[in-house]
Amino acid sequence: MLETGTKAPSFSLPDQNGQMHSLEEYKGKKVILYFYPKDNTPGCTKQACNFGELYPQFQEKGAVILGVSKDSVASHKKFEEKYSLPFTLLSDTELSCIRAYDVWQEKKNYGKVSMGVVRTTYLIDEEGVIVKAFGNVKAADNPGQMLECILTE
Description:
two-stranded antiparallel sheet; 30% strand; alpha/beta; 4 helices; five-stranded mixed beta sheet
């Protein structure tokens, strides 16, 4: 996980509609950049839907929400449509952004070791600096936790 106070790594990734997004285009806004393992899994769905429910409050504070996983653009599109998600989902099939933000790590599941995305959320300020970093977050609680961060910033 990257340290707070460091410059957030730049990225350029396609969203669920195939449109490219880069961190630089969000300069001047707070960015919640959250990394999750997989579309349509219970934890990831709960996290995305909770971000969706709180989305108007994030917008009021001028914050942008970007969800990132290694799923394809098509998978993100189905996920967005199925749950009416109002924010951007970025596809990182090459793992470039996932690795840059140090969330591709060894995971243990029922004694089996594999590499995967560790659920991590970063709050990036208007200047592109990481001001908060949360690793191994609880999917259901993370959106509320991030809203609290925005409200107290």
